[in-house]
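are you around this afternoon, could really use another pair of eyes. what follows is a protein written twice so to speak, once as letters and once as structure tokens for the fold. i want to understand how the tokens follow from the sequence so walk me through it. anything you notice is useful, everything is just below.
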Amino acid sequence: MAAATVGVPSERAVAAGTGLEVASGAGGGIVGSYTLEAMPYTDMDPNAVNHVTLANTGTTRITSYTLTVDYSSLVGAVDVTVPFSGCEKKTEGVLVCQGKDAPAPGATTRLGHFRVRSLKGARGGTTGEIRVSGQADGAAITERVWKVDIKDVGFVQDRATGKVEGEVKPGAEVRPGAGFTYFGANTLKGTDLSMHATHGSFEQEFSNCTYGKLPIPMDSDPGSLTDLAFPAAVCHFDNTIEVGDSFDVSPGPLRIGDDALGTALISHLGDTDQLRKMTDVHPGKGPELKLVPRPDSAPPGKPQSRDLGPAYRVDTTADAEAVGASAEGRPGDVVTVQVGYRNNGPGGMPTWTGTEPLEDPSVVTTITIPQGTTVVKVPKRCWTEDDRESRPGGHVYTCRGENNDWWVGSSERLVWSFKLRIDKASVKPGKVSLEVLRESDSNTRNDTAAITVKAPGSTGSGAVPWIAGTAGVLAAGVGTLLFATARRRRQS
């Protein structure tokens, strides 16, 4: 049989009424993709959408068929899993698969996809192929060829050390570490490690590292920063690194933040972009941080497309307390009340827990306006409950923080400023009501607070003058997997 052009079937011999085709079903089933990407990750498969189809193009039912899968050009470089059943190894890199359940005449069966994972030592940028041919009831099956590109993905994290079972206390010291394997294309003369500690701090500095603070952006909008900045470092190593080399590194003790709900070490080998983003930069002092070669006898790593951590859960709680207000004035006066919530700690709390900004808020804040007053100015991020408009004149509003208000540390608060016109001499109090995730609310008895407006000199109903400051700068606390940070799981 003549060699087939990639993605284009060669002429096929067809027995009377018999025909079976193997093809790529990607591209909407019209034009298949015959190029596969080989990456080392065990938690991500870029070829999952590139399924294989089996089509009966003849007029008779096929009783049995045999497929030969030849990936001998990839032996030692790629681990291949085929989408066919009944396969046995014929020679190294060649499988023979016996099939029984062929589709009916004119029908197509959708199978799985080729899983091609690059192995340690495979050089990025090289290629190979998977050739599929065979016979169905004596008729030759058109040979199909999938091209395999071994991707240069550089360093891949495949180990996390220093994990702790259960929870740790705020302020405790842990010793996290990470391991990497080089899945690149060329020998390197030196490399760099960037790392930051989410809701923690480095307790030791090293002379070949530069330290500072790393502002943290939202995953969905890298151009918009949150209110978080974590301790960070970039370290340089002079090691000569060959394709397939593995290394482990530990930055010394890491102190858990006092208001952290969770802490993690996030690190990347072969990356210096972090250095230009850091603030308050200064050179490290102390010994040299070592990139330690991993011995061949060590257990193999598990390459991941995302950071492994390690992450630590912290034994702490937070408490959101409703913040009400009291104002004085006569009919016709316009008064200002600042209302919202305060975090009584000791742990910090995220303002939202979803994958997008403000998605799945930790605290839903509802403001009921005092009867006898009219809202004449509405703060940003507050909407009327009935029509979801940010307009004056509403009776009930729900409020959220700005996109970058992601963390409310212990003793900090998030408040909104309403301007109210007093319409009557006697005003019925309004209120602030909170709906809070349990992990952010250790005391549910303080989830409501009054908003009172009274005339000058009146005693009111226990109300006292309330002076509102601006919302405190939200300090760093626990992250998400927004920032690969562990947080306490919601309890039912």
